[in-house]
Amino acid sequence: MRTFFRRRASTGTGSRALVWPLAFSLCAAFAFHGPVRAEEYHLGVMDKLRVRVAEWQTAEGAVRDWSAVSGDYTVGASGKISLPFLGELAASGKTAEEVSAEIGEKMQQLFGLRDRPSASVEIAQYRPIYISGEIQSPGQYAYVPGMTVLKALSLGGGMRRPDPGQRVARDYIRSEGDASVLIAERNRLLARRARLQAEISGKDSISPPKELEGISEADQLLASETALMKSRNKRLTLQLQALADLKTLLNSEIESLAKKADTQSRQLELVQSDREKVYNLTEKGLAVSSRRLSIEQQMTDLQAGLLDIDTASLKARQDINKAGQDETNLRNDWDAQLAQELQNTERELETNTLKLGTSRDLMSEALMQSAVEATSAKETATVTYAIVREVDGKAREMTVDENTAVLPGDVVKVSVGVAMR
Q1: Parallel, antiparallel, or unpaired for β 411-420 and 129-133?
Q2: N or C terminus of the chain: which is more exposed, having fewer CB within 10 Å?
Q3: Which parts of the sequence belong to the AprE-like long alpha-helical hairpin domain (predicted)?
Q4: Is the pLDDT of residue 161 over 70?
Q5: What is the dihedral of CA 334, 338, 339, 342, to 10 degrees?
Q6: Is the whole model's pTM more than 0.85, yes or no?
Q7: Sequence-separated (6 or more) residues with CB below 8 Å from residue 150
Q8: CB distance 389 to 404 below 8 Å
Q9: Which positions ≥6 away from 261 have C-beta within 8 Å?
Q10: Tens digit of pLDDT for each residue in 370-392?
Q11: Nearest partner of 158 among 187, 133, 191, judged by Cα
């Protein structure tokens, strides 16, 4: 293109007169190209702009393309676009023509150009619209020129399509299933509570609770809890019997030690008697000193044996006391465990009762809703549309119809009311 203009410029004054209108026509085409005319639309945040800048150089008779400045830009949250060399330029609230004029002026001032560059600003993508209310898929959608309220609703899948009958049936079935599970759990808890009460009272059998009367699976639940109770009682009995056997064994050991101590004591008395005789004979020179030393050693061994017997007897008594304490702790732990299990069962029963009541309430509500919907079949729905649009920096809501034009950044609201036929 630059070569073309240079060749035309070199042909003379008459030819140059033909080039000037052509160049201005090209610049005008850049300035007004786009989905909408610049003066018809005011830019806003999230608009995406495509900027092209060209300069007609009078001296050379050619067009200079400013590719460093040209490109795609988005209006940021501050309402500005950021261009190379030029920095940030305010765009929100302005038309594309005003932005293009400002770009040309700033470039001429910044680079000291003789001729003002011509900037083309077109909207590459409009800021989105938003759809909310009684539609199938509310959310954010891309704007296209010529959009109306009805077209916007089609983007969101149209009006919401409720299935009240199916929803009521589904809610009822879900609540009924939850109630069945809760009833089965309640029956198990009642059987468990009856078993715990029997264990605490020391009974051998479980008294059937009144709440389980007439329930088919009550016998099976009570049989299972009875088997568990027998197993637990057997384990406790075995543990207590083991402690009792240990105490019996220790008492037998103490008796044996006592008999052994008596025997040792009699032997010690005999040795002491012999010791006195040996002492007398030794003093008279009738016995040797080795005999005296031997009997002293015998007395020491007997005394040490008696001391060992006393120590073993004392330890056996300590073990008996420990076994008795273990028996007491076992019974106390067992009672505490039963009390804690009963407390937990009572709490679970309360929670179960609340949940069961909620499920039954939901079932009743579903039945009532079914009746209400049968009555509401005689009613008609009225649809109203509204657009929330930013005007002078403030959001304003206005009631519209299906054919009202939608602008970029609008929020389309859909509401449904009920009126009697």
Answers
A1: parallel
A2: C
A3: 179-361
A4: no
A5: 170
A6: no
A7: 402, 403
A8: no
A9: 306, 309, 310, 313
A10: 666 655 555 556 889 999 998 87
A11: 133
